Structures are given as C-alpha cells and as structure tokens.
Amino acid sequence: MNTKKAAAAALAAALGIGTLAACGTEDARDAAGKTDGPAPKTVTLVSHDSFNASKEVLAEFTQQTGLTVKVLKSGDAGEAVNKEILTKGSPQGDVFFGVDNTLLSRALDNGIFVPYEAKGLDRIPAALQLDKEQHRVTPIDSGDICVNYDKQYFAGKKLAPPQTFDDLAKPEYKDLLVVENPERSSPGLGFLLGTAAKYGDTGWQDYWKKLKANGVKTVDSWELAYNQEFSGSAGGRKAKGDRPLVVSYASSPPVEVLYAEPQPTVAPTGVSTGTCFRQTEFAGLLNGAKNPEGGKKLIDFLISKKFQDDMPLQMFVNPVTNDATLPELFTKHGVVVEQPYAMEPKKIADNRDQWIQQWTSLVLK
To answer: Whole-angstrom Cα distance, residue 315 to residue 185?
Structure first.
C-alpha cells in the first residue's frame, strides 16, 4: 500500500528491509530444537508491503527485549502468503504479518504457522480469533475494504458518487472504476468476496459481467490502483490517474488529510459504504523460524497497547484490542461502516480458488 510520506496517500508505507539498532542477546531455538551457536540478536518480520510502525515504537520493543526488528516486505498480501507457502519449513523470517480472513485458510492448510497463544489475547474479542482452538495466528488489526471516490471529480461533474454495488454498474459510472486482481491482492479478493456476499454464489458472475461491460479496469496491486490510477489520491494526481473510483479502505481518507500540506479540513476522498467487506489481519509464528522465542515476543508486542495505539496512523487500520485508543484525526476523517458484508471463513475456503478462476475467465479473458 514507494514510502508513505513520499506517496502522501499510501495506506501504509513500504519502507523496504530495515533494522533498528539493538543490543543484548536472546535465547533461541529453531523449529527442530537446535540450540547451537550464539543467540540471535534480530527477529525478522515478513509482511506485505503495507506494514509500517513508528521508529519509537519498534525501539521500545528493542529496549524491552534486546532484539532488533528486521522487516522484510514481500509484495501484496496474496503474493506474500504464496511466497511463504513455497518456502514452508525454511521461511524468510520468524513471524509473518498480513494474512487476512480472505487468505487465512490457504495459509493454515499449508502449515506455514506453528501454534502460539499470545500474551494479552484476552483483550481481543473472541469473534476475531478465527483460529482460537489452535492459536496458529493472532488477530492484529481490522478494517473495511470499500470503494473510495474522488470528491472533486464528482462535484465537478455534478454527479452523485456511487454508494452501492448496484450503483457501480450503472452507465453514469462507465470507465470510472479501478479494482485489484483478487489472485494477487487482498483488497481485490475482499472486493470479489463482497460481491459474492451481496449477489450469492452464482449471481456475482452476472454482476461482474456488468462491471466489465461498464469499463472496469483491473491492475495487480493496491499500490498501482490507489497511487497510480486513482485521481483522488496525492500519488494518483501526480501520476495523472484518471479513475475517480478505486477499491481501497474505509480508513483511507485520513491518509489524504494527514500528509497533505496544508492539511484540509475535509478529506478529499469519500467512501461508498454500501460496497464494504470486513477484513481482519493476523500474525503468526512461522514454521521453521530461526528465532522462534524472539518471534513469540514480537507477536506479544504486536498486540500490546503501545503498538495498537501506534498502528492506526501508521497503517490506517483499526486496532483489535479493547484498550486501544484511536487518534482524533483517524476518527474524524475515517468512516465507520455499520453493516459491512462478511463471509464465514469456511465458505471462503471452500470457494475462494474456484471463484478466482471464474473471475479471471470472466474479467481478464
């Protein structure tokens, strides 16, 4: 979701691979139980490109544990999960962050995580703990995948922005929408699942035929859609994007306020609340981690109040713990979606791959 400050509209910044200075040692044991060699001084977090945390917060983790946090960005969420599946048993790092409810069954079925019951889990609602019997993953954040619109475009055209899935297929919105490929992008997959939740197991195909006929554009990632194609984001305006509708998040508008100079009193982008699908992201201890003990401490830290309070204005998602505090800018310019579309994890698991194949045949061919 290119750094966040440079893009000014990124949902979270891709900072690349980075470390913070740390000192001290930590007892470590790999998945096979070996203890030879010096204790590691780093713990590696593998994530999608949108992970971000303030230096001060990660420095506090270093102070508490003596461990350096190394962040390895691995593409959009779908791509990142697939990479971990391909390297199962010999992972790139110790903890993976960013698998969401749309991809969770794929990760769990392929055994890329090992169980760990995080400290402080009692502060997270049980409804978000989708693997609460085995604790292979821990909820970290939640948010709503929704269509965003460029307010200036629609005001200039004297056209009401679309608010529902039905609206998006109407002639007045022809050639205005850009979406992400659900095979590669978690927002794209969430949007596809939202249409399936709305129109049913077979009805969604007819709906996508209408969207295709109405000129929907597909790109591979959220970064391309939001920061290149979408006319309402700072990045999109710089890139001369010409699509005033994009699949993004209900929490995207605060980004456009926070990094604008000067800051506007009203966000320049809006949210079509009738198009939203609820997403929860998780972190898990990777099978074969070189520093599993450090990984456990990092997962504990990801649900600490310090990290959860920092997260909204770093990744523009909602914290999951009941003691977290949302910043005023986030609450003022973000959108609360009262009735998002949702789908049971089992139904997602049973249908996801065939739906993606069907979508590909319908939309890309």
So the answer is: 16
Q: List pLDDT tens digits, range 240-277.
A: 999 999 999 999 999 899 888 899 999 999 999 999 99
The DSSP-derived string for 200-258 is HHHHHHHHHHHHHHTT-EEES-HHHIIIIIBTTSHHHHHTT--BSEEEEETT-HHHHHH
If you write DSSP's letter for every residue of 41-57 in order, what string do you get?
A: SEEEEEE-TT----HHH
The two tokens of residue 66 are 């003596």
User: Are 147 and 272 a contacting pair, CB within 8 Å?
Assistant: yes
Residue with tokens 């993606």: 356
Cut 0.90: pTM above it: no
Residue 253's identity, in one-letter code, is P
> What are the counts of helices (DSSP H) followed by strands (DSSP E) for the chain?
15, 10
Bridge-partner residues for 147, per DSSP?
247, 272
150-170, pLDDT tens digit by residue? 999 999 999 999 999 999 999
Q: Which two tokens stand for residue 134?
A: 């085995």
Q: Is the dihedral of CA 321, 325, 329, 335 positive or negative?
A: positive
* Cα gap 169→11, rounded to integer Å: 26
- Per residue, the 3-state secondary structure of 87-131, as one string, reads CCCCCCCCEEEEEECCCHHHHHHCCCEECCCCCCHHHCCHHHCCC
- Separation between Cα atoms, residue 286 and residue 136, nearest integer Å: 9
